[in-house]
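As promised in the previous annual report, we have extended the structural survey to additional targets. Below is the entry for FUSC family protein.
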Amino acid sequence: MSSRPPLAGVLRLGRPSDIWFKPALSVVVAVAPPSIALLALGRLDLAMYTMAGSLCALYAHNRPYAARARALAWVVLGMLGGLAAALVAASLAPGAVVLVMVGAVLAAVQKVLCDAARIGPPGNVVLTFVSSAALFTPQSLAQVPGHLALAAASGAWAWLVGMAPGLLRPHGPERRAVAGALHAAAAYVETAGTGRPGGQGGPHGTTAAGPHATATTAVQSARQALLCAGRPSETRQALERLRVRAEVALAAPADTDPEPLRTWARQVRGNRPVPHVDDLPGLGTGPAAPPGPLWRRLRPLAPLALRVALGCALAGYASLALGIGRPYWALVTAASLYQANLTLTWGRGVQRVVGNLIGVLLFAAVVPVAHSGGVALVLCCLALNFGAEALIGRNYWLGSVCVTPMALLVTEFAGFQEPGRLITERIVDTLVGALLGLVAAVAVPDRRWQRVVRAGGSAPRTLAATGRSRGLHPDQRADQRTGSETTEGVRP
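The corresponding structure token record, generated without further manual editing, is:
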């Protein structure tokens, strides 16, 4: 088998998320009021600091509101911590060489903390973008408290924006997760029952590995959503019984009718009463084991931290050597690449380069409009923020097409600049960051993923021994465990 990094499928567009509009609208609502207020005051040069807090509205949209409140609070605090470190370093550091090293260390810390805490997309990339840009913004120590206050105020507003939908649909995330599990289980049952091509033999006939993996992941996601949703309520208990029905469907597809699953999924959405189904004896889930302490989850991520720090430092110093005035673009490009394994990292690099190159062309088209005045600049940034979040779920490169001109326009808040120079520097930094980021990924391998894959061989025996009471076939239980480790490990 060839070991060359694959290109096929890296740029293929997927289906948008069911809630793609939520982060897209949330970021617009979070960014708009602070930006409009600064525009009215004639201080758009401060917009970078308010945007730092506003971008926290991108996070945690798939989490139940009790868990979302905690996650968003930690994201805001993490954003403020990274911004504070960057602003103090910008005030005190003797030159760009030191600033690049500080930026590389910050990027590594942000990456491992986000992965260990499982703060999902956009993960560390937004935090690193803000802190790295702040490192190369002229700053005095006396200005730092005021700039942090602006970021904190906009971060508090972003927290409110993220929590606001809970006033109308307090169980919305759990309902969506259970509905998704029921739909995915119905699709698997239908595929297993019809024996479509591309499946593999199983205890109940021909089953499709793709639908089974999708359904397993959906059921696990629903379980996690219910476990972190807060105190049990009548609605959540009814949702848990439906989730168990989806899990049972995975274990016995030949004995399951998919139509009730689909009917329940439709009824669960919205605010209608959750349909009641009887408990299945012996299939209660019980509480999950709490995750280990954060420090214990950080320990296996040491190679990742070293890889990120090395890649970001190499990219930043190469950018400085080429005379680029904004080496943080190369640094952020390198920080955005690192995924669970080298193949995925390579794919992300291709997506980043393609998206950024098309994005600078979009910037060239948009910049004449943005330069017509402050109102046009703010409106362009809002539109690009919406476009980035609406498209990035289809494929990372497609979202980058909007992220790139938005990031370039952020530099215009302090004053309009020559577009040709910005475009040239961004292209060079993208190529440098992607190349040297991949070099660091090869130079510092991570054996953790290979250990997970090798451990999968013993999974059937272990899982069969520990969970026969749940009624799952040993092969299906092995698939379920492997799927969990794949989807719940290092996230983008």
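The mean pLDDT is 83. The first strand starts at residue 200 and ends at 202. These points will be discussed at the next consortium meeting with the crystallography subgroup.
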